[in-house]
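Sanity check

After download, print the first record. It should look like this:
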Amino acid sequence: MCRLVTLIISLGICSLAAADTIKATIKGTACDLCASTIEKTFRAQPEVKTVDVDLENKLVTIQTKQGLTMDDSKIRKLLGNVGYSVVAVAREKQ
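Expected structure tokens:
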């Protein structure tokens, strides 16, 4: 029983410290300048480890730092501030 409780607690702590992979589908991107502007905006955020913009698929992939996350409203605001609208946001825990 003690080992089971320890395992459950350990798994819970691990999931809290996990990083997120966030994929935002956007409208309005068309060129390398668009991608560069989005990447620069997200790299300036303290919780962001990496960011990648796929122009063809209109997808921004954000990897957060371990133990940090970024909420949907912040993602929408940052993208809106640089001229893009968000169609959808999906998340994966690492």
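If your output differs, re-run the checksum step. Summary of this record's structure: The helical segments are 2-16, 32-43, 72-81.
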